[in-house]
Amino acid sequence: MAAPVWPTGFGEPITIRCETIDRFRKNSNETRFGALTFLGGLQFSSSDGRVHGISALRLTDDGSAFLGVTDNGNWLAGEILRGQGGRPIGFAEATVAPLRDRLGGAIRGKALGDAESLAIDPTGRTAYVGFEQRHRISAYDLRHPGTGKALDVPLPMPVRELRANKGLEALAIAPAHSALAGSLVTVSEHSIDEDGNLFAGIVGKNGGRGSVFKVRRYAKWEVSDGDFLPGGDLLLLERRFEGLFGGLGIRIRKIAADAIRAGALVDGPVVFEADLSDEIDNMEGLDVWQDDRGRTRLTLVSDDNASFFQRNLLLEFVWSEDGPAASIIGQ
């Protein structure tokens, strides 16, 4: 996506407090983790309760602005301040505004406002938001963010196959030059078929129904977001939570571009994995973007669930699978 179309100042101004995260592994200066090289991160909070529940975040290609959705029915927008080497050092001009329904009214309540996924088309003019509980995909005109009406987008799978609180957790738009030719793809968190595989779909264009494919599910892991690499492969962010003693973990799986098609069952290798020895929390969002040095960057964001024991985190990495660890200025 190019420069932002949405006004970065839309909505109600809020203050977000930040602390930088300089090391990903808590007791190590290591920077390379699987296919990723850690660049930097933020731990952030706000006295405004609407900042809780961040489910998805998308950045502009220069990494200067972001747009996100929360599972309590809000847009969150603002700027990302950056320091040496492009490290995130804070937020500015942060605002919040309610997501709108088909009549243009503010969405109220968790059951209707549980936004879990977000994708923005390459023009920057349209945002697609995936909701669970009342399962649906809504399209919004970003030329009128915070005020525009929601437009329904047909689901590629039967709504009866989506579990109440385990629905459309990932929305991503494939590169135009890829086998999927710019299609919108969605993957469920834990809506499974009779063989235990995850329902996923290719959203139809021009109002068409689309098609279903499946993603192989592994015990203990659930999808929390996804996005496409520039070459067309799909990265799926997954998390596991096994209680207070079993611990928390995250990982990223890479699905080959040409594997995703109607009727397919797809799988792919794990290219990144982390646990509580690292600076992670309930990581809900993943965005892939290109910086001004031509590097592919990954931004992950967590949802603190309004819990004293959890944190809002923003973590940034450089995609390094195809070469040596990225050169990080300032280390």
Short note summarizing the structure:
The protein is mostly beta strands and 331 residues long. It has helices at 110-113, 243-246; strands spanning 12-13, 17-21, 32-33, 36-45, 54-59, 65-70, 74-82, 88-98, 115-120, 126-131, 136-141, 151-153, 168-173, 184-192, 198-202, 211-215, 222-228, 234-241, 248-255, 265-266, 270-275, 283-290, 296-302, 312-319. This is Esterase-like activity of phytase family protein.
Write structural notes for this entry.
Residues 50-305 form the Phytase-like domain. It comes from Jiella mangrovi. Pfam families: Phytase-like. The chain is mainly β and 331 residues long. It has one domain: Neuraminidase (6 Propeller). Helix content is 2%, strand content 46%. The protein has two helices and 24 strands. The chain has helices spanning 110-113, 243-246; strands at 12-13, 17-21, 32-33, 36-45, 54-59, 65-70, 74-82, 88-98, 115-120, 126-131, 136-141, 151-153, 168-173, 184-192, 198-202, 211-215, 222-228, 234-241, 248-255, 265-266, 270-275, 283-290, 296-302, 312-319. Strands 2, 3, 4, 22, 23 and 24 form a six-stranded antiparallel sheet that branches. Strands 1-8-7-6-5 form a five-stranded antiparallel sheet, with no helix packed on it. β7 (74-82) and β8 (88-98) form a beta hairpin. The chain starts with 11 loop residues before the first strand and ends in a 12-residue tail after the last strand.
